[in-house]
Every structure is written in structure tokens, then in C-alpha cells.
Amino acid sequence: MDNQEKSPSPGRPAVTKEKILVFFIDHLNKVYAAKVHLSRKLPLLVNEANFKGLRHAINESIEDIEKQIARMEVIFTLLDEEIADDSCKGMLGLVDDAFDSVMEYKDDAALRDLSLLYYMQNIESIEMASFQILQIAAVKLKNKQVVQLLRENYDEAKADRTLMLLITAKYVSSK
Q1: Distance between CA atoms of 24 and 39, rounded to whole angstroms?
Q2: pLDDT value at residue 153
Q3: Please, which pLDDT band fits residue 11 given cuts at 50, 70 and 90?
């Protein structure tokens, strides 16, 4: 008999708590790396925003990112896991693209602000999806505190995304 675990249904592999933990830690590391990268890059973009409401929202996002990073560090501790020197090239690339795009429009305040709004909206959407998937996986880990910390990160990402949507609507309609 091979070393395969018995699947609960034909055609679907068994999803054990151990496999969920491997997935969870791997992807938590990716989100963590992206958040740390974002926490380094975003402060450089605050002063590039022309619209006062956008500058305020970026500063609020920076504060939220710092809280989210701290919560993820607590999660690693709760699960007795080390933070890996991991990266998520896709998420890091999106942050770098945002930075490059904003600099590309250095001489045009409107295009620079619109670019910031576009990328902030995309980043927050990816964060929401990431925290939501990790939250679902965390339920299988049976650690209510981890689930709660992820819910808080998701709620902050959702609030930041909503704020960016409102600012985008206000910005576009005020011009």
C-alpha cells in the first residue's frame, strides 16, 4: 500500500491539519513579507500624493500595516513557528509597480494621485483575500486567537479598501 492518505471523497486529496499548517505558515510568511515591504515603501509615497484626503488615507494605511504586522508576529508565536525570510514575488512586484508608476507620473499630480489610488485599491483587495483564506484555514488549526487576529487584519484591510474607494469617488468627481 502506498503512503497516500485516504481521501474523504474520490478525486479530492485529504486535507489534514498538518497540511493546513504547512499551507498556512507558508502563506502567512508571504503576506508578512509583503506587508514588511509595503511598510518600507509606503512612507516614501505619502508626500507624492497631491490630494490631502489621499495623503491621510495612506498614513492611516501605514498605521494599519504596522498593527497587522504585529498581529502576524503574534500568530507565529502562538503557533510556535519562526518567521521565514520568505518573499512573495507577486505581491512585492505589485508594490514595486505602484512605486514605479507613481514616480513615472512625477510631473502630473492628477495622474500620480490616480495611480496611487489604483494601486492602493489593488493592494488592499489582495490583502483582504489573503487574510480571508488564511482565516478559513485557521479554523482547521483550532486556534480561536489566531482566527480572531486574522479577522482583525481582514477588517482593517476591508476598511482601508473602502476608504480608498470613497476617496477615489471623491477625487474623480471633484475634478
Answers
A1: 22
A2: 97
A3: confident
Distance CA(39)–CA(30), nearest Å, equals 14
CA distance 126 to 113: 20
Return the C-alpha cell found at 109. Answer: 499630480
- Return the bridge partners of 137, or none: none
Alpha carbon distance 28, 25 (integer Å): 5
For the chain, the average pLDDT equals 88
pLDDT tens digits, 115-151: 999 888 888 898 999 999 999 999 999 999 999 999 9
